Amino acid sequence: MHNTLTEHARCLFGDEYRPRPECSLEHEERYFIEELTFADADSVLAMLHELCPHRVDGLLPVWVRNLAYRLALLQRPDEPALMREAAENLWLHGLDWDDIAADLTRCAGSELSWEPLVTLRDRDGSPH
After folding, report:
1. Rounded Cα–Cα distance for residues 3 and 35 (Å)
2. What is the mean pLDDT of the chain?
3. Counting beta carbons within 10 angstroms of the beta carbon of residue 48, is it exposed (0 to 12), middle (13 to 18) or buried (19 or more)?
4. Residues contacting residue 105 through CB under 8 Å, at least 6 positions apart
5. pLDDT tens sequence across 46-103
6. Are the beta carbons of 2 and 28 closer than 8 angstroms?
7. Which residues lie below 8 Å from residue 2, measured CB to CB, with a gap of 6+?
8. What is the value of pTM for the model shown?
9. Using only C-alpha atoms, what is the Rg of the chain?
């Protein structure tokens, strides 16, 4: 068994900054998702911060990042800094979640200090 969620993610998805460790364990996404689902917020955030330290980098699939932030927010629903961090992740990884990112930013009580790298669009593709 892996000692941490980060180790499990590194074995399964790789790490942009370190070689993939040698590991004889069976690596299936379903086992990782089960571990992620029941991980505490500190473990989830440690994984995200170590494997994707600049948010635009890392080898974690976008769906894993989104799920990880969602699970962390469920455990810490009133943490503005975490809401802003999750919103930044959503801004960076696709137009489909811009409305959710905007809601998180509003809930956090302040606007992001940087311009999104993408143009805000409605779900049908038309600009706001």
Report:
1. 11
2. 83
3. buried
4. 83, 84, 87, 111, 112
5. 999 999 998 888 999 999 999 999 999 999 988 999 999 999 998 887 778 888 888 8
6. no
7. 8, 11, 23, 25, 35
8. 0.79
9. 16
